[in-house]
Amino acid sequence: MLRPAVAEDAGAVAAVHARAGRAAWSAFLGDVLAEPEVDTWRERLAEPAFLVAERTGRVVGFARADERTGEVAYLYVDPDEQGRGTGRQLLAAVLDRLRTAGHRRARLRTEERNAGPRRFYASAGWRLTGEVLEREWRGRRLRELWYELDLD
Fold first, then answer.
1. Which residues pair with 3 in a beta bridge?
2. What pLDDT score was predicted for residue 34?
3. Mean pLDDT of 42-62
4. Number of structural domains, the chain?
5. Which three-class secondary structure state does DSSP give residue 28?
6. pLDDT at position 50, please?
7. Torsion angles phi and psi, residue 141, rounded to 5
8. pLDDT-based confidence at 18, cuts 50/70/90?
9. Could you tell me which of 53, 58, 61 has the C-alpha nearest to residue 23?
10. Radius of gyration over alpha carbons of the chain, in Å?
11. What InterPro entries does this protein map onto (predicted)?
12. CA-based max dimension of the chain
């Protein structure tokens, strides 16, 4: 079940982010997500267009579309939930929000070494734009690749 996120979801969202992040990034970033950051996520959940996915009453994933920029800002699914269609449902829901907001193209970015999500986006029809964002995050160097998808 997908629903809008509420402030009370902060702990569960933080836990999903930490678990998914460790599973996806630890091989190339180390353990940068040792503890869930509940306060940070409580603030982020106040942003519009934030959705959570629940299974049997437990938050198992979340996503957010930035309706102003057309960017898929977050898409995380608990590693135990991956492969069950939750990520595809979340992605479809945030893309619908972008369409409703008038966007004809969606964008997102992911770390170059993040192989699983890169395969997921490619299989869903996303194309690399050739743009790269290089930045530092928690003392680690990131190289994020931009993807786009036509929404028509």
1. 52
2. 59
3. 92
4. 1
5. helix
6. 93
7. -85, 125
8. confident
9. 61
10. 15
11. Acyl_CoA_acyltransferase, Bact_Acetyltransf, GNAT_dom
12. 40
CB 40 within 8 A of CB 14: yes
- Stretch (H or E) spanning 82: none
Tokens of 44: 């982020």
- Structure confidence at residue 97 as a pLDDT band (50, 70, 90): very high
Nearest to 83 by CA among 42, 55, 46, 43: 55
Locate 22 and state its tokens.
Answer: 């460790």
> Other CB atoms closer than 10 Å to residue 46's CB: what's the count?
11
Which pTM was predicted?
0.91
**CATH number, domain containing residue 22:** 3.40.630.30
The pair of structure tokens assigned to 137 is 């995050």
Rounded to whole angstroms, how far apart are CA atoms 115 and 3? 28
Tokens 């699914």 identify what position?
Answer: 77
Domain coverage including residue 92: 2-150
Give me the residue label for tokens 């306060």: 39
> How far is Cα 26 from Cα 132, in angstroms, rounded to an integer?
21
